[in-house]
């Protein structure tokens, strides 16, 4: 599930929020934090965000 997440998924999700740029930026920030943690604990081999 999380291993299948790719950069294009992140871009599509954030891009779909173009009408709410503040919320899109906040989501991207949270994804970077969560995916950084997933990287640290070995769930993924690269952070797609």
Task: Please characterize this protein's 3D structure.
The protein is mostly helical and 49 residues long. Helices cover 59% and strands 0% of the residues. It has one domain (2-40). It has helices at 7-15, 21-40. The chain is elongated, with a radius of gyration of 11 Å. 0% of the residues are buried.
Question: What's this entry about, in short?
Answer:
By secondary structure, the protein is mostly helical.
Question: Which radius of gyration do the C-alpha atoms yield?
Answer: 11 Å
State the secondary-structure class: mainly alpha
Output the helix-strand order: HH
DSSP helical segment count:
2
Instruction: Please describe the biggest sheet, giving its number of strands, its sense, and whether it closes into a barrel.
Output: none
Q: Level of helix content?
A: 55-70%
Mean pLDDT: 93
How far do the termini sit from each other? 15 Å
- Name the shape in a single word: elongated
Oligomer: single chain
Q: Any idea how many domains?
A: 1
Instruction: Please report which band the strand proportion falls in: under 5%, 5-15%, 15-25%, 25-35%, 35-45% or over 45%.
Output: under 5%
